[in-house]
């Protein structure tokens, strides 16, 4: 009979497309929903979304559901890395100059695919990537390959090349007759308009600007753009529906970035009460990147615990304390790439060491980061209608943040990526 064939074909197509996907019923003694810890909850996943979440008694098991229970686990939203560089890897293996200048984009991309997988398998289902540092727009291609399911990896927002002022950025120390490729794209004055638009056209999801760099007369961090330049960048960025994020360590660069309209400040090594208040008044999120500072210092010979804190670590601690005391919103982003991808938890451990509670850090890595990415309606919490990005960790990371090292289960978009029973 003729009409049966198209119907059958349609049903087959639906089954293959995952439309009739078997639902999941996930349970664990503890669940972090993005805001608080819950006990004895269940989560129902259908297709790529969370269908229901609540106390077990109030959430019935859907017919035919795959039931997974984690007897000593904690269910959390898929974690979000707020500051990654998937195209970089630890500088104690290969220094930054060599990675940027000598390694081909093809080689770096091959590595980045492994970095992406390691990030996802650690329970980080999303990453905000802050620039390829010399690998052009390879991050746009990486994001595409992940979104198309060609390779496993986190959902991404990418910065592309990022923008620096002429003369400020590295690699440095080469014969000035040489035209050296930089780790970001130089632009100044009105030319910033063209460069921002070009970066957007090539796939940047947000615009990252180095608002300062260590190019002072003593090698100290000094602003690299005027307030007017940053305002110009922000205006062009905003009108495309994107946001400006700024690398800024010094007080003055932070001030200019915030007044220009930057939504996040990366690093912020010299935040004091006044700077923190300005950031808070402008709803800015602070990404402290503690790990990067500690790791780079260790690569240079500092033995943590056995030697006194060097000045950059002392400054970072002061800065973090000022941010915390002021009630400034603090995101979780460690500059991972400086240390191994998949070891993202290092930043979370340091945030606790520097004064936050484990529960606060879990919020930073979920709801706070989701808001900073303007994706809070899609990811970062466990609630009906949210995308089914879920991780399970052995133990209780709201008490011991290091339990995030024990990843039992990872689901992204309703698809199981890792399951260690
Ligand atoms: Zn960075």
Describe the secondary-structure layout:
Elements: H1 4-16, E1 24-27, E2 30-32, E3 37-39, E4 41-46, E5 49-55, E6 66-69, E7 73-77, E8 79-84, H2 96-101, H3 105-121, E9 124-129, H4 138-147, E10 155-158, E11 163-164, E12 185-186, H5 191-201, E13 207-210, E14 212-214, E15 221-223, H6 227-239, E16 244-248, H7 251-260, E17 264-267, H8 273-281, E18 285-287, H9 290-299, H10 311-326, E19 329-330, H11 345-353, H12 358-372, E20 390-394, E21 407-412, E22 415-419
Parallel strand pairs: 1-6, 2-7, 8-9, 9-10, 11-12, 13-16, 16-17, 17-18, 18-19
Antiparallel strand pairs: 1-4, 2-3, 4-5, 7-20, 14-15, 20-21, 21-22
The structure holds zinc ion.
Describe this structure in words.
- By secondary structure, the protein is α/β, with parallel strands linked by helices.
- The chain has 2 domains: 22-77 and 381-419, Urease, subunit C, domain 1 (Roll), CATH 2.30.40; 79-372, Alpha-Beta Barrel (TIM Barrel), CATH 3.20.20.140.
- It has helices spanning 4-16, 96-101, 105-121, 138-147, 191-201, 227-239, 251-260, 273-281, 290-299, 311-326, 345-353, 358-372; strands spanning 24-27, 30-32, 37-39, 41-46, 49-55, 66-69, 73-77, 79-84, 124-129, 155-158, 163-164, 185-186, 207-210, 212-214, 221-223, 244-248, 264-267, 285-287, 329-330, 390-394, 407-412, 415-419.
- A hairpin with a 2-residue loop joins β4 (41-46) and β5.
- It is globular and about 70 Å long.
- The N and C termini lie far apart (47 Å).
- Zinc ion binds at residues 83, 85, 130, 335.
The CATH homologous superfamily name of the largest domain equals Metal-dependent hydrolases
CATH overall fold name of the largest domain = TIM Barrel
Shape: globular
- Uncertain runs are none
| Helical stretch tally | 12
**Distance between the amino and carboxyl termini:** 47 Å
**How many separate domains make up the residues?**
2
**Ligand kinds:** zinc ion
Which architecture of the largest domain per CATH? Alpha-Beta Barrel
Would you tell me the structural class of the helices and strands? alpha/beta
* Rg estimate, integer Å: 22 Å
What share of residues are in beta strands? 15-25%
Residues in helices, as a percent range = 25-40%
Overall CATH class of the largest domain: Alpha Beta
Number of distinct beta strands? 22
Mean pLDDT: 95
Strand order of the largest sheet: 3-2-7-20-21-22
Q: Summarize the biggest pleated sheet.
A: 6 strands, mixed
């Amino acid at each position: 009979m003729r009409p049966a064939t198209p119907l059958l074909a349609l049903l087959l197509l639906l089954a293959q497309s995952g439309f009739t996907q078997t639902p999941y019923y996930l349970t664990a003694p503890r669940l972090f929903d993005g805001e608080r810890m819950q006990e004895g909850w269940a989560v129902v996943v259908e297709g790529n979304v969370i269908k229901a979440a609540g106390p077990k008694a109030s959430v019935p098991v859907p017919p035919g559901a795959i039931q997974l229970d984690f007897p000593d686990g904690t269910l959390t939203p898929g974690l979000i890395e707020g500051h990654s560089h998937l195209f970089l890897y630890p500088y104690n293996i290969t220094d930054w100059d060599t990675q940027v200048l000598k390694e081909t984009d093809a080689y770096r991309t091959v590595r980045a695919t492994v970095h992406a997988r390691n990030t996802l398998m650690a329970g980080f289902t999303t990453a905000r990537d802050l620039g390829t540092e010399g690998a052009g727009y390879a991050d746009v291609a990486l994001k595409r390959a992940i979104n198309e399911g060609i390779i496993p990896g986190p959902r991404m927002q990418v910065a592309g090349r990022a923008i620096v002022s002429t003369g400020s950025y590295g690699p440095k120390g080469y014969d000035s007759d040489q035209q050296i490729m930089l780790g970001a794209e130089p632009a100044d004055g009105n030319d910033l308009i063209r460069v921002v638009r070009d970066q957007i056209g090539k796939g940047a999801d947000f615009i990252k600007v180095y608002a300062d760099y260590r190019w002072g007369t003593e090698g100290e961090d000094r602003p690299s753009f005027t307030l007017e330049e940053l305002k110009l960048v922000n205006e062009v960025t905003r009108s495309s529906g994107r946001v400006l994020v700024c690398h800024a360590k010094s007080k003055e660069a932070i001030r200019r970035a915030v007044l220009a309209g930057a939504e996040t400040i990366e690093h912020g090594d010299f935040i004091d009460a006044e700077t923190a208040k300005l950031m808070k008044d402008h709803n800015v999120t602070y990404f402290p990147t503690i790990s990067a500072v500690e790791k780079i210092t260790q690569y240079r010979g500092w033995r943590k615990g056995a030697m006194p804190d060097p000045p950059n670590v002392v400054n970072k601690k002061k800065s973090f304390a000022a941010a915390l005391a002021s009630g400034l919103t603090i995101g979780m982003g460690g500059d991972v790439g400086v240390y191994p991808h998949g070891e993202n938890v290092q930043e979370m451990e340091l945030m606790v060491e520097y004064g936050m509670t484990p529960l606060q850090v879990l919020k930073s890595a979920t709801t706070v980061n989701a808001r900073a990415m303007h994706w809070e309606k899609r990811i970062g919490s466990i609630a009906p209608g949210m995308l089914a990005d879920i991780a399970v960790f052995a133990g209780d990371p709201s008490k011991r943040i290091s339990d995030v090292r024990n990843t039992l289960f990872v689901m992204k978009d309703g698809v199981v990526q890792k399951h260690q029973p």
